[in-house]
Amino acid sequence: MEYKEMSCLAIHDISGVGKCSLTVALPVLSCCGVETSVLPTAVLSTHTGGFSGFTYRDLTEDLLPMAEHWKSLGCRFQALYSGFLGSAGQIGLVEQIFDWFRQEDTLVLVDPVMGDGGKLYQTYTPEMADGMGRLCRKADIVVPNMTEAYHLLGRDYDPGPYTREQVVDILKGLCALGPRMAVLTGVWLQAGSLGTACYDARTGEAELFLTDRIEGFYHGTGDLFASALLGGLLNGACLKEACETATEFTWRTIETTFEKSADHRFGPKFECHLPWLGEKMEACRKTVANPENLR
Ligand code: PXL
To answer: How far is CA 166 from the centre of its chain?
Structure first.
């Protein structure tokens, strides 16, 4: 096994049932070889997408004391990765935590989790959605779905189909907010296809990765995709490679969830695909470790 030291701080909620956020980010990043610390933003009995009656404990007051403790211990993270936030007040605190832990080569990934299908999630207020825009300006890479991307850009939601030019225009708009890379999920150009798109403002290169659409709505797959994407980047993949691998990992998982899950609300069935992801990451590490292969 090629060893590479990789670490990350994941800032998301814990939903006890209905795999998403930290219950997805932790196993996926560990499988990618990334030592992952967690800052839980809220603890819920289930996620908020499709369940009613969930419990919700907001952890806003714990965020800074936890991060201060880590500061006193001299903790460092190669990546800072935020997702679902519990309250409007958390956004400023996460910005502060980014400032505390960011170093020259830290990768800051913001998944601006806010909504899907043209609507905001139950616990998201317009104030939170606006704050998310501020947080995105601090990121190196943002990974919204189409609902979130339109909201961030202040444009009216378009459910698609999209043209390639429209997708690239959205990606460029996201990078104009501040991040140097943007990745979109929920991209489709014609019926029967669904996938992702990425853009690197430094190289000006954009790429779409479209797969066969599998009918249904799959909770937690955005978190699955973003976590695998970050795993790839930390393992040394370029943006396009990381995006391609994360797209395929997500597609494989959706296929299994479609076939084996009676109720998609309980989350993506990704575990049986972790060995595949682990092999892809190992291949990345070998490529990066071999100077002859350096791109
Ligand atoms: O997967 C996004 C997500 C994360 N966390 C919570 C959610 C959702 C989406 O519904 O409700 C608590």
So the answer is: 22
